Amino acid sequence: MQPEKRVALYLQDAHPLEECIRLAKYAEEKGFEAVWQAESRLVRDAIVPMAAYAAVTSRIKIGSGVINNWTRNIGLLAATYLTLDDLAPDRILCGIGAWWDPLAKNVGIDRRKPLLAMKETIEVFRRLLRLENVTFHGEFHNVDGIELDVVHGRREPRNVPVLIGATGNKMLALAGEMADGCLLNYCVPPSYNDRAMELLSAGAKKAGRSVDDVDRPQLIVCSVDNDRAVAIEGAKELITQYLAQQPHIAKASGVDEETVKKIQSILGWPATKEQIHEAMQFVPDELILNITATGTPEEAKARVEEYKARGCTCPVLYPLGDADLMIDTFAP
Asked: What domains sit in the chain, N to C, each tagged with a CATH number?
């Protein structure tokens, strides 16, 4: 697909799983490059939907956007992506991130030394998918003479690109240094990408390569409707919840602390629809338009172009509202 035509679909929990499967098939029909499945709150795991998409498509790439590097044993992690690659050879993308608090802490995960943990995970994961026999003794992973046991399928190294879902400065630099790509975060203004590009470039330089060697797909909340007000309302529900529950995204979005505190004081965990709608009054329309691609089809397309102009190589669009209209709007 030509660089200017690259576009992907992002699915999280805004749609029933059966609808997600239909949307993945529709995106493939319309020429989308990839479909990425979120694994965010304790709402939906990424692997099961990825397998479902793989089983009903033939061309589109399928990525995790993103799993975390804490909760799956490294042997199981590699075996999982080997299995996905058996379902969809050379179409699987491993998006992986360092997770976030308070969720990680609340389920018993101590996210200490996240950079070292990520480095070790990626190194052992890659070696296993190259079908090496791996012995590795690190601070987070300790394995002795393990290898993937391919009983059925191809006994050959697997091509599963690793993209780090990075938001913080140090993780962005690490992505530039050692990952195949960086899955840039959403709910941020296009100007966020300027600093991200600097950090990715610095990391890439450290590894003796260019930032152009690092793929940079970016999650973008995209609420499209022929009625601009309807589109804004469609995005506001999601943004309200994210500002309350994902502090790293709230920080990156540039939202003032007072607004975040007001929203957090209303939302529980998990948040109810009523709480979200009560808190939405504190989220101004201007914020929605600043950190998402929201509005009429032409307005949404123009906004996505701003992210691309500042370093995004492939917009990964999270459809809110009319998902079919969004896919039709951005079809290459």
From this structure: 3-226+295-330 (3.20.20.30), 227-294 (no CATH)
